[in-house]
Each structure stands twice: as C-alpha cells, then as structure tokens.
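question for whoever is on the cluster today: can someone run the full assembly for these? two chains, 679 residues total. i dont have access anymore since they changed the login thing
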Amino acid sequence: MKRTLPIVIVIVAVTVLLMFVGLTSVGRSAGTVGINAGGALPGFSSDTSTPEKALTNFLLDIQKRNWGRAFSSTERTSDAINEQSFIQDWIGSSGGLRSFSALERFDTRPLHATDSEAQMRVRLHWATPVGPVEDVRDLRLKHTGDTWRVVWDETPRPNVPAQIVPVNYLRWDLVTGNGSDEWGSHNVDAPHVRIVSMNAVDSAEGVVIMGEVVNEDTVPAFVNVNAILLNASGGTIDDESSFDKILHVLLPKQVSPYRVDFPHISLNKVKNVRMDVKATLVPASSDPVIGVMNQKLETDAQGHTVLHGELLNESGETVNIPHVIASFYDNSGKVVWVSDGYVEKALLPQSTETFAVEIPQSLAGKVQNFHVVVNQYSLEKS
Amino acid sequence: MSSSTSTAWKSHKFILALALGLLSSFALAQDVALQVPPGFVAGNAATIGTSGSGSATFYLIGPATSIKRNIELGKEISLVAKDLQAAGRYVAVVCSSSCSSQAFFVAPGKPVDLSFIVHPSRAPVAENEAISGVALTFDEFRNLVLTPSTVQFQWSTKGTNPMSHSSQTREGIAWFRTSSGKTAGPLQISAAIGNDVNTRRVVQQVASIPCNLRIKGQRTAKGILVETEPIRDCSGNPVPDGTVVTFTAKGGDQTSSVDAPVKQDVARATILANGPVTISAASGVAMGNELRLGAKE
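^ ran it for u. tokens below:
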C-alpha cells in the first residue's frame, strides 16, 4: 500500500497536467512554418494575445458551430450584422451547398501585421456532398486592448422582397405508350446530339478529353459523353464518362462543354480515342434562366488565373446548388480547357451570386475566349 | 489364345450384330412409305398418305407444332388447319416396328397484315432522304410472306397533295425513302396492300436550324433588354418554343451571357452591363448579327 500510493499520486498529477495542457493548447502544432492549422481536436483556449491565436480560436468555434462565442469574439463594422446573418454566412441557407457542408480543417497565413491591425489569409477546407471544396478568405483582425478580434464586415444577404414572378416557360413532359400498342406505331427517336469539338491534352493529373456537345434536336436530351482510350494495338487502356463535368440536360440547340478525366494516364501511351455520346429523352423545363454576368479573367491574390463572374437568376425559382462549367478557347476557337466549380450559396430568385473557376497557369496565355453554362440542382425537382 | 485377344474378338462380334440389326431395321423402314403432296399453305387443312398395314404412331414436328397420334397404316393422315398455322419446315414421322420420316415445307398464306416502321419520328424540314419506311407483309397467322406483293406507300402533309410510291416486296420486305417537306408539321405516311390492308404512321417534320438570326436591344432600368426577331429556319418555319439562344455581351474585358429559350418565336433576356457593349446571339451552330450599344447615360 505504501509503495503504490506515490504511483497513484504521480498518475493523478500527470493526468491533471495533461488536461491543463490540452485545454490551453491551440489547434494542432503540426504544419508548415508560419501557417497555423485547425483540426478536429480543438482546445478551449481563449488566448487572443496574437492575431494567429485569435483567428485560430475564432475558426475553431466556427468548426464546432459554437456560434455565440464566435460571434461575440468579432468586431462588427455595421449594425446590420447580427448573429443570425453571421450564422447564415457560415452554414448557408435555402438548401445551398454550404448547408450540406462541414468545415473539415483550415490553414491560416499572416499577410500583413502592425501593432493595431493584421491581415490573415484563411484557407477553409469544406467537406461537401460533391467532394472537398476549398474556400480562401482574407480576414482582417484588430488589436483592441489586450486582445485581437476578427473584424466581421460581411454584408448580410439582402432579403428577396415578396413579389410575383410570372413563369411561363416551356416544359416538356414525356408520355410513354402502353405495351399493348402495335409494334412500330409509337416509336420516338432519341434526341439527336452531336459532339462538335474534341481535344485531348496531357495535364498534371493525366489525360483530359474535352470539347463541346450540341443538342441539334427540337426536344430536350439527357446527355452523357463517354471516351475510350486505345493503345497502338487497338486495346482499351481505360474508359470514363464525363460524370458531372457536362450540362446533362440540354435544351434544343443548347451547347455544353464536357470534360472526361483519365487520371494517372499519359497521352503518349494513347493512340486513339473513341468518343460516344448517349442521349435519352427526358422531361425538362426551360425555367429557371440563369444569366452569367460580368465574366472576367483575372489573376487572384494567390497568383492563379481564374474566371470570375456573377450568376443572375432571372426567374422565380430558387436554384439550390448552381454548378458552373466553363469552356476556354484559343484564338482559333479550339477548346483548350474545361473547368467547373460549385457555388456554395443558393441562387435566390432575381438575385446574383459570384462564382470563380480556375484554369491552369500554363494555359492562361492561350485563352482568348470562354463560354459559361450553369447546371442547376433544385431540391424541389430532385 | 490370350484373354485380351478373346475380349477383342467378342467386341467385334457385338459391332457386327449391331450393324446387321440396323440394316434390317432400315429394310423394314422402307416398308412404310409416306406420301406428302406438294403445296402446303399455312392455315389450310391437308392430308398425308401412308402405305403398309397395321397400326403405327404418327409424329409431326414443325416450327410451332408437335403432334403425336395413333394411325392406321395404309390410310391417309388428316391434318387440320390448326396443325399447320406456322410456315416453315415440318418433319412427318411414322413409327411401327421401325420409323420412316419425310420433311416438307408449309408456305405462308396471302398477305393480310403489315408491320410498318418509319424512321425517324422527327425529321428536320427540307432534308434530303431524311425519312424512310419499311413494311413487312404477313399472313393471318403472322408468317412473313416471302412471295412478292405490291405495297403502296403514301405520304401527305396538311393542305398538300399526297405523294405515293409503289414497291414490290423482296423476301417479304418493301421500303421507301424520301426527303422531308418544307413545312413543319405532322407527315402522315401509310402503307397499304390492296384496299383492305392499310397501316398509318406519323413523322413530325420540325423546323431546321435557325436562319437569319437577328437581334435588337435597348437599355432599361434593370440592364439591357435584348431580344431576337421572330426566329425561323431557312424554309420560313418558326423554330419550336424552348429552343435555346445564347446572348453574349462583350464590353471591355468583361463578358456576360444568357442562354434564353425561345417563347412564341422570340428569345428574350436581360443583360447587366453599364458600359458600351457588343451583343451577339447564337443558337446551336447558327450565328446571328452583332448589336452595338453605347454606355449608360
């Protein structure tokens, strides 16, 4: 008994010490020098003595959805910002992609700092139903007294005013005959869809087959493009489909970019590419019409070439998850790249939402023109 | 003589006995003769003559028939119409002490039915050889009639005189090919044999690609309201509602675009742009004119 008592005391002391360290530590210590990283094992520190610690604490609260604490730790620039709008900015609303996302981790990097102010770049890694999405934000922090506080100046989304938007666009329904009908009397052909361009390039990830496809028919078509890579002996190397990198429902005379990725395959092994476009009749609607406004190729703060723009929902239906697909052309009109990206916020009726899609740096100089189409996922339709 | 030599001798004896047995049964089989008359037609009753005497078992195996019946040799075997409905090769077999068989063919009856398939179900107007139709002739028991018969194809649109084309079937099949008309609308196509058999199909003739796509636009409080003139194909048919027209406005280094569907012959969209812009329109592979608008005052 006398021999075990000191051991018990040591174990208790070490446990208390470890608990204390755990509760006062901030984030994960691993990571690149100069970059703080947030993780799934947060501490409970309220240490805001440096911009990095203050921002990390703020993002950990966001990650844990500790909204009250996160909101109270911010410096607001406008009275219009309330906790509700702050929460909505982080968790999304109206069934947007953000509503189904979780902040998996984050990296912070100081950009600029003085005694009173600091500028930090945050790279937020979201887990979403359409795969990981990375969001980069530049946040400002202010030194007030002994603490640093995140300046929250995000303007709350304006509420869509109550209104009546007449919707009288065309809708196509599909009527199938019953089985007892005479053979050959009720045949309806599949829509006539054609691949109008195709280009195969070698990228860092592998072979990319891209181009454009047009619905030449007078009825809507559900379209999928498949590509088969063949080697010199005519054998199949791999086959893939365009998956979500295509506007699947094509209205009459509508043109969509497509892209088929073959990861880890080099183009010099490919002798031939066999393309196949499959089209089936589907019920469809012309509504909603989405305009793509103010598209502009720019270099962002990280030095990447991106196509920025705004989506304008010209109809009365909420588009929960807009998906932007852009084709980029060189000066001869050839498609040199196809890029896509999901917009995290829902596109409300008669409202705009910004988007950005990236193009590889090596192609940035070649791009002379671009064409953007918008895929739309609406919860009411799914 | 060794035991292996003895076994080989026994097996040779067995094979010899089997061959003799088969030869004798073949000789017996020649005793029962089947007399199958020519010219069997599907759905018609027929008789098959037999020779010999005594009782026997009759088998009939056809494309969709198998019959077993006890018969008296030397009498005719009656086959009712139902036994011979399917055209094709039949085998009649009579077995008493041995079996005798004979094959014969049943030909299809007169064509009284048509299967008619027309392709495509939608065809753009003014397209050469765009529409084709195939007719297959059948008798009343759905046997493909292989003997040549004349099929009369006829097609017409509303308000036009019908056009017709006669075609002889080859191996039971007749076909035609024609160009689509210049007017959008349903094209009624029929295939007929004589006056009694007539099958009708409909092909929708639809507008072809837009022709002379022209746009006009004006600045409004919300932006630039741009719309097309009524869109028609080169034959003057209005393009169907829902056809997508892509409006693209370029001003400085910015571009805006809207995919707008045609509604009542016109596609319309609002584009947000303040500076001077050049607006163009395209529908599928057809391009329209360019429109230049100055900056917002």
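summary bc i know u wont read the tokens: Chain B has three domains: 31-107, 113-206, 210-293. Chain B has a mean pLDDT of 86.
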